C-alpha cells in the first residue's frame, strides 16, 4: 500500500511547481499560490514525526 503522506506531498509539490513555472505568463499572480503550496507539499513529504506517532499508537493498541 502506498503511503498517503508521500502521495499528497508529491502532488502538492508538483502542483506548486507548475504554478510557479506558469506564473510569468499570467502576471505572477499564481506565484503567490504556488510558493506556499510547494512549501506545504515539502513539509508533508518530510514530516516523519507523524508516522512515528502512528506506529506508537498501533503498538499500544496491539498490546491490549
Q: Topology, please?
A:
Layout: H1 4-22, H2 29-46, H3 49-63
Overview of this protein structure:
By secondary structure, the chain is mainly α. The protein is built from 3 helices and no strands. It has one domain (4-63). Helix 1 (4-22) runs antiparallel to helix 2.
How many strands, which pairing sense, and closed or not: the largest β-sheet? none
Give the end-to-end Cα distance, rounded to a whole number of Å.
26 Å
Structural class: mainly alpha
Overall number of strands: 0
How many domains make up the 3D coordinates?
Answer: 1
Helix residue percentage: over 70%
Gyration radius (Cα, Å) is 17 Å
- Broad shape: rod-shaped
Which strand-content bin applies to the residues? under 5%
pLDDT below 50 for ≥5 consecutive residues: which ranges?
none
The overall pLDDT, averaged over residues, is 86
Count of DSSP helices?
Answer: 3
N-to-C order of helices and strands? HHH
Question: Summed up, what is this model?
Answer:
This protein is mostly helical.
Q: Which keywords apply here?
A:
64 residues; mainly alpha; 0% strand
